[in-house]
């Protein structure tokens, strides 16, 4: 089950196009293998918990012919919002697999507490000069989960000008993803069928328990077992050395996604004029999405610190506009020790088809989703990183951050009982990471 899919492809292209933006932490020239490892903990309050391990290997085989390989393994557990609205009475939902049901207490946001997944991701990148002023890079990425598989390839070119003070870059990536959730993909706008609390063992012996009819009702809400999507990402960038202290970068990104973009685990509630639940329908999203983004970044070197400030604007044809401001200040404490405060703000508008609920009796829209992640929201992250040198040029670092996501009402009037319930609860999380470079 996917928690979220960030645009890792675009980030990889951005890194490839920003050769002049190395922070210098491990920029020493060496033909030896270099390794960066990290273990990260991400824990939301009463929701999802993730633990991730990363190892990145890099080697220069001579003349800047560089190989980068990365392996990521992470595990997700906890409770994930299913999109339904809270009610003043307990609610029962069928599990996404169709095996059993779970009950949510009165007044609580409906969360599926069986959320769990393991992801393994491997990537490889080869970068080399094609001439004195031209560098090329190609790579591939494979990611596998229990019900999700993704494969991608990418390539980029970077050209130096102005005595290597100016760098122009262009990158392309292609990705193909498949999703095959246990229980299949739901029929859009079909009403969720609630079994009544059968567990996995009871489903394995349906004849003895007499629940064949229930299973048939559930299967009628299934469209097919799997689907797929394709993604094309383009990135164009310029990096400029202004003087010995200041470096700036600007990127334009374009992304086209086609295929299955609906979240099969999400639903939207239909309520009457008293706010009482009538039924829960499976969501339906468009089968294409076009995104544009502009990114600008500046790095300034003080005598004993480096400031890193960036801004990103993104927009898409789902009418989601977002703004991101990210700031870091690396302060050198002497003898290789440093601290790095981090502050990030993010704001987005709601998708044009986002609805926290539907009103009974109204005509169904062509597309609808109650997923708060595509609704209006503000988020911020505040944290601190501390790094220290070890023998032989190794480095150990610790990072602790607090993250808060605050969904907003995008102009919807809550009827009846819903006006007294929290439809937009904040999501709070702690992030802790230990990293080791050797």
Automatic annotation (TrEMBL):
Entry-linked InterPro entries: DUF3570
Annotated keywords: Signal
Region called Disordered, residue ranges: 204-223
Signal peptide: 1-27
Transmembrane segments: none
Biased composition (Acidic residues): 204-217
Residue ranges of coiled coil: none
Domain of life: Bacteria
Listed Pfam families: DUF3570 (PF12094)
UniProt name for this protein: DUF3570 domain-containing protein
Protein's organism: Pseudobowmanella zhangzhouensis
Taxonomic classification: Bacteria, Pseudomonadati, Pseudomonadota, Gammaproteobacteria, Alteromonadales
